[in-house]
Amino acid sequence: MRPLSGFRVLDLTRFLSGPYCTMVLAELGADVIKIEQPGTGDDSRRMAPKVNGESYPFAMPNRSKRSVALDLKSDRGRELFHELAAGADLVIENFRPGVTRRLGIDYDAIRAVREDILYCSISGFGQTGPYRDRPGFDIMAQGIGGFLRMTGQPDGKPTKVGIAINDIAAGATAIYSILAAELNRRQTGEGQYIDISLVDAGLAWTVWESGAYFGNGETPAQTGTRHRRSAPYQAYRTADGYVTIGANTDRLWQRLINDVLKRPDWADDPRFIDLPARMNHLDELEEEIEAITTTLPTSAWVDRMDTAGVPGGPVLTYDETLDDPHVQARGMIVDLEHPIIGPMKTIAPPTRFSDLEFSVRAPAPWLGQHTASVLSELGIGGDEIDRLFTDGILYDAHPDLQKGRTA
Would the keyword Transport turn up in this protein's UniProt record (predicted)? Predict the structure, then answer.
């Protein structure tokens, strides 16, 4: 039994922030029905690489869901959405503010058919404020949130974080906000409207940076791999690559200089004698450490640090990460069988519960794969469903693959 079994979600989201959120809800047990535009669907379905015409990137955050392709601009399509919403617990969307109102599927419209509905909107800048009407993707949020100016090498160009961090931050924020709203609803019977902004979600993660700014006006700058408050805490060159070292306490510093780097004299070096001194001499510290670490390969330094109890590790490329024996042993790569792509791999949910089930349930659906079956659950007759397919209000990209249906 999954913890969200029986919780039904109507998912109107596209790209990454919303789909990431609903993927997690689905694998916690929610019945996530992805509502997509006939013919095109989620914009991320266009992303390469494609296998047999299906987008592999789309398949990552959209697994474990059902797809219904429904024209919300048509009167009957909107009526059917309202019928679905009457039996749903959550509606989630990431259109620009105002779009759902024009479609007649905004919070007030859905609350009229289910008073205690949870309704979550994710947008670039939120539903209020002077920028509310701006379109906003992850890169804009990284820019306005200061991330592009605090990432990368000192004096370098503005640098994007390697992943879509604001999208994932917004998705993660939506997850815990929805779960909090559901707990509240179970106690009070009241629904909730939830407003999530990519900018707000990312800004909320600037914990150390905000502390330094509010504490003494420090504006976070680009520091490469260096930590803003501790040293040594960064990646250092080795004979064949890079190694991370996290000797950011006095106890770990002593282990590093005595047992790993074999430089006990640094304990009395005024440049490195304590953390404030090390932070004031970061360039010299890096130069001195790399003069030593470049004499041996990464693996040798990792072995030394493991023996000494100093946190450290290799700096891997993504393919090396996925091949790493620890990642493999943790079961972080899952094999699936997609009805069109065929055998494929995905990344597993990261949490290990003692007794709760949290795992990939199914591959991502093709566009409109569950349109007929979901509407049949509503009690819509087969003749009407066939007519709605003919009229283009409903859509199934591969009716030939449906059992019991013909193209």
Answer: no
Instruction: Assign 347 to helix, strand or coil.
Output: strand
CATH of 233-315, picked from 2.30.130.10, 3.20.20.10, 3.40.50.150, 3.30.1540.10, is: 3.30.1540.10
Return d(Cα 270, Cα 259) in angstroms, integer: 20
Reading phi first (left if > 0) and then psi (alpha if -120 to 50, else beta), residue 390 is in alpha
312, β-bridge pairs: 245
Q: For 227-264, what is the HEC assignment?
A: CCCCCCEEEEECCCCEEEEECCCHHHHHHHHHHHCCCH
User: Which of 236, 234, 237 minimizes the C-alpha distance to 247?
Assistant: 234
Q: What positions carry a catalytic annotation?
A: 167
| Reported pTM | 0.96
Cα 285 to its chain centre, rounded Å, is 35
The residue written with tokens 């969307």 in the block is 93
CATH 3.30.1540.10 residue ranges in the chain? 233-315
The second-level CATH assignment, the architecture, of 8-204+330-401 is: 3-Layer(aba) Sandwich (3.40)
pLDDT digits (tens, 9 = 90+) for 332-370: 999 999 999 999 999 999 999 999 999 999 999 999 999
Radius of gyration of the chain (CA): 26
Tens-place pLDDT, residues 100-112: 999 999 999 999 9
Contact 16, 138 (CB under 8 A): yes
